Amino acid sequence: MNPRKEETQKRFDADAKAYEERIIKHVNGYLDLHLSIMNMIPFKPDQAFKVLDLGIGSGRLAKQILEKYPKARLTAVDFSDKMIAMCRSRLAEFSDRIELLNEDFDNNLPPGKFDLVIMILSLHHLEDPDKASMIKLIHKNLNKPGALLIGDLTKSAYPRITKIYMDLWRQNLRDNGYDDGHIENCYREKYQKEDIPATLEDQLQWLKAAKFDQIEVFWKRYHFVGFGGFKGIK
Ligand SMILES: C[S@@+](CC[C@H](N)C(=O)[O-])C[C@H]1O[C@@H](n2cnc3c(N)ncnc32)[C@H](O)[C@@H]1O
Question: Does the CB atom of residue 37 touch ligand 1 within 6 A?
Fold first, then answer.
């Protein structure tokens, strides 16, 4: 595992307990982004389908999916033991429908094909060429009809707009009670050391190159974006 990934894995292990409270404050619109993903799932509540959640974290969105779709089965991957442990207890009531894997998802999918793949705030942890090949691999392992739904931070192609996004991100943290020292530390630790956001334009290109036939940006709040690709859906 490369040093950046090790750093990321260590931080998620160390912060797992505080994750849920923190992520809501750090990602402006986090719960609404999850809601947008729920609204884009192209299946009916009584359908049986296989979901793959890459970077499941604490399992908040996975729980909503398992509740709304009682015949859905979930496979999830996360390389943080602590996140997987949290997830296992949150999803205990669904234990007969879930498989949780403590692995690195980087261009490494669990065997079999899936109908829905979700990646929420996790794709940006990969280097750009790995993001592109991951999208291709997911398309290959997706059934028809199928969907890849992504919610993530992106970067603007324009430094002027990136600065506006970063100022708004800092203001949102201040509004949520964090002091400037904490905010600058987060910026250095997270944004500069661990996160590798890509432009939305590049990611849409990678979806196109992978041959998704419907590609859509369905949610956006500044640099946080909900988008994805659909395969074989009329
Ligand atoms: C910001 S959290 C997002 C969690 C969840 N999807 C959500 O919506 O809150 C990112 C998660 O991805 C996991 N992760 C990041 N890179 C990974 C990798 N290469 N392999 C497996 N898990 C990874 C982290 O451990 C963490 O739990």
Answer: no
